[in-house]
User: Fold these one by one.
Assistant:
Number 1:
Amino acid sequence: MASPSQQAETEGTRNDTLETPTEDQLPAIPSATAHVNAKTEDMTPLRLELPFQDHVLAGLRAGHWVWLEGTMYSMGHLAGQRLVSEIKQGLPTAIPLEQQSIYFSTPSPAPFGKVIGSFDPEISAPFNRVAIHLLAAGVRCVVGYGPRNHDVIEAIKRGHGLYLHAPGGAGALLARCVLQSEIVAYPDLGLEAIRRIKVSLFPALIAVDAFGRDIFHAYHTSQKHQRASTGEIIL
Amino acid sequence: MRAVPFDAVVEAAKELFLETHFHLREDIRLALERAWEREEEPARTYIGLLLENAILASKGEVPLCRDTGVPIWFVEMGSELGMEDGLLPQAVEEGVKQAFLQYPSFSPILQDPLDVKSLITDRIPASVHLRIVEGSELRMICMRASALSELSSRLGVLEAGFAERELVEFVRQAVLQAGPWCNPPVLVGVGIGASLDDVARLARGGLLRPVGKPHTRLEYARLEQEMLNAVNALKMGPGGVGGETTALAVHIETAPCHRAAIPVAVCILGHSVRVAEVILTPDG
């Protein structure tokens, strides 16, 4: 078996990474080039108005950056769970879901004079079940961080939606992209409450597009961070 | 014996804690800039956003990252020094408490790890690595450990007669298992040797060394490079979106250990590397 460093030397171009399954038991190595050929395709980020119209989806491919403009709802774990329990019981939901976009994040406390505190995304995997319910209830776009499981991707495909990967750890930058923020539901949850946010030039990478193409396809076998979806765990 | 005033330590701890909210370590910023130059889209934009984030956060208004993490304190105390009016961990804890009053932040700490209701939000019990060194200076370093970094790290004990290749594989596996969730590009600290309890501290200590400064011993510097190549060959890239830069650097720290059991720890820190340092002298 070649050592990892030898492999590094033999791998010439980026496209070769797709043909280098090192060990069978490991998830294959991901490559954004699986979906996008940077050399031939225009990679200029598009502005995406939220909530979006159906016709824009044709031009949005996994691996492209978009700048989000418009209104989203942000929520933490507890708010997501409460919203799902409302949906399951058939109650009217605390926020409108049809055609909306959901950002999974809990901000840090807002400093004096600021709209919102540090606001980078939370890991999406613990929100998988929440996302499936929300997508089934009419949500079109979910924004978070990291790979999602097969069920969510199917739900996105079914609903012609999008999953966007926001830059993790870029809290100050994403906070600046939020023009307005207002708590619209579950104020008792504090920072985790549902907020309606108005964003401008909010950067996000299309991780799963409406056709189910997924830049993280190599990671689905991993069950990491799935456990958090069952308990009230805050990361 | 010369004394360091309690209040001076409190003040220093407060300043360090506040500084690590906002400032990305300079060597990391430079390493990200270099990575930006060699990456292609979409990784290039990803790194560009991280650099922009660092500039915005350094204004001191909004923290770098939502998870401001748990502060880990490395303290080197000169043997000629003593503390007045209290103990060092108390002073550090008090400093953090005062920092919370000055700048509202949120670090969800569980008083009881098994009780999710026992959240404390107004203070952080001090985690201090204290070392007594020669001299009359007090050197304090504050490093933030976020939840994702902790979740990504791993520890193991190798049996005697392991091959160097296994060490490289151990590190590569740690990053691979952590996946995009460890917030790449990461900084990797590797502790080799010591004992089970000390090896994790060694690994964490490796993260204090600036990027671009290899190990002083040539064979370890070579091993660091080999590990870095192995990790970057994963092509996970920034944020897991694919690319050449999965890790910015791998830093090895070693210590003597039993020849039959060699502990190895891998401490993975996401790109938000927040470390601040201050040196106190008894004269102020």
Number 2:
Amino acid sequence: MNISIVNGHVVDPANGVDAVTSLFISEDRIVHVGATAPDGFVADQQLDAAGKLVIPGLIDLSARLGEPGFEYKADIDSESLAAVSAGITTLCCPPDTSPVIDAPAEIEFIEQRQEEVGLARIKVIAALTQGLKGSQLTEMAALKDAGCIGVSNVFAAFANGNVIRSALAYAASHDLTIFIHPEDLDLANGGCVHEGAVATRLGLPAMPEAAETAAIGYILPILKLTGARAHFCRLSTGEGMNMIRRARIDGLKVSADVCAHQLFLTEMDASDFNPLCHTRPPLRTQRDKEALRKGLTSNGIDAICSDHQPHELDAKLAPFAVTEPGISALETLLPLTLRLVEEGVLSRPQAVAQITCNPARILGLDDLGHLGAGATADLCIIDPDTEWECQPATFHSRGKNSPFAGWPFRGTVTHTFVGGELVYETNVSAP
Amino acid sequence: MSNTLQPGPLPASMQLDDNGKLRHFLTIEGLSATLLTEILDVAESFSVVATQPVKKVPLLRGKTIFNLFFEPSTRTRTTFELAAKRLSADVMNMNISTSATSKGESLLDTLRNLEAMYSDMFVVRHADSGAAQLIARHVAPHVSVINAGDGRHAHPTQAMLDVFTIRRHKPDLTALRVAIVGDILHSRVARSQIHALNTLNTGEVRVIAPKTLLPENVEQLGVQVYHSMAQGLKDVDVVIMLRLQRERMTGALLPSEHEFFRLYGLDEAALAYAKPDAIVMHPGPANRGVEIASSVADGPRSVILEQVSNGLAIRMAVMSMCLGATGGGKG
């Protein structure tokens, strides 16, 4: 099947395209970008994207999908639909499921579910240690053969520093990126909010900035020692980001992401015990928020992700500290990122890069995240002018736990293609 | 009881009804000096009741009050119970073990069940900060919630009875220096005291503790921070000692009880740093020899037992004000 998407404003930062042009898709690939169709191309279907943005499908570095083990929160059906409805075509699933993704069988399960559902791509980040228990390494070569795109211990502790060294060295010998969640569990001390004035007022167990910076400071020399490639997940502090930036300048193979809500919310948003603002890492200070925003354009942050964590109602109906952390965030990733353009933080190509080609580079997925000839035809079309108000009750995700209720956003996804197939289309008459 | 995830209004406005009258009593923070003074004045009128041969007033006759204690307490629960009985309310005590409510939904489930029994007020003590506010956000419109202590967050009736006690001894708060000594970090009492004292324009509020027992940015609550008794107690009019829980010794926060008492315990020698007429307070129960010497706790400057009696009057005042029956205490 040949599809042409004509007259759209194509934003493809990896290929330096930011102009009105047309895209030509044959089967699952983009075959040509330009004003006119390549010789012999006959479109079976033509889509007029005049007045709309055409960007690569979003690649989300972290989304919990509820499977396996947490089907009472969400499942791959609901969350895949939520993803493609919000322009996200690739989801990365961390291994802290139940059971933990530490063997090829769990990866096969997720791949099978993805094929059944047939919407977004799902990439698996597998466990670095068996059962995420921090002592015995997983069979990383087998996991890689099964399709994992990286390994992580998520928030789990390691038995000791030597296990960390071995795990990193072994991952490096199989050319696997290690996804590090920098949190020193001892310094975090069970804290659920940033340690500062708000936590002091509310009397909530607090996590100091040093929980993040100490963890980063500890792991960087081990990365240098092992030559491993590491991606730092969900940075929350400006200081932590600066440490990684310096390591990058020193030649270490490191990258970093931030979740979208850290660029918009601060500790103050939790100041009325709002459990929807209970996140891990916690929302930090205004200063951190500003530093992370600056980092987007100064080599501090490579990617923005959703850190999607859908929860059932009861998970958030409890005193703040005992609620489960996390935000249902798939459907606010693109709107928040576009808002950074409106607020003048990023240019439009810079914003698109943070959610498309940059995460693709971190994952080593050469044919995703851009719209060059030969790339996989994962893309979305956005009506940039539609104004709407965020209403979590209407989310496709089963998780309605969003602190962004009532926020005005501009720009909606009208079409999403995965592998050249139209997997999502809004009803044009609907608001 | 509503089942919505969206947060409600901020605590300050949530505590007042449309006419600016007290509806819930969750935290001192955000309440006006006028309202706090009204509570103190109503409590003064109720303190007379306790000295009369018939100690009951009919203000809350026909009202049902549940004391919900998710955390053990003897003194606070007893004074709330007695306060409710003196106001002629029907009062039920529920001691709910935390193991039964380790999952958050059970907390709200418990409340739904109680609400079905047409209660008018919940007095709540809970180990988690924000619990009282969570409950207040979800109860039916006619139900009032009084916070009897939530986690490390707030214990507003304790703070009010402390201020009441101070005011009886030293009526002009603006002229006073008040020092709060000990485990500020884990103390809901200290947080509420600081808000109450500052709202009522107390001259100076100090905290005295080692850094391990002080929360970050505590000075932003409006206190002067001291690490030594000699400096911190100098020229102080009121010394408030906090209870130091013994389990704090195991968490590497302090080296030993002995060293804590030597540096931050209140004995005669330490009290000598304060003004000669300084009063000594403690929210109880005191750990004698850990934070306070018996000679001081039982000494002439101690008002610790008065605090207990005053607690009754304050709780009667708050309960009657929340249920809109403030008039009759003077009888």
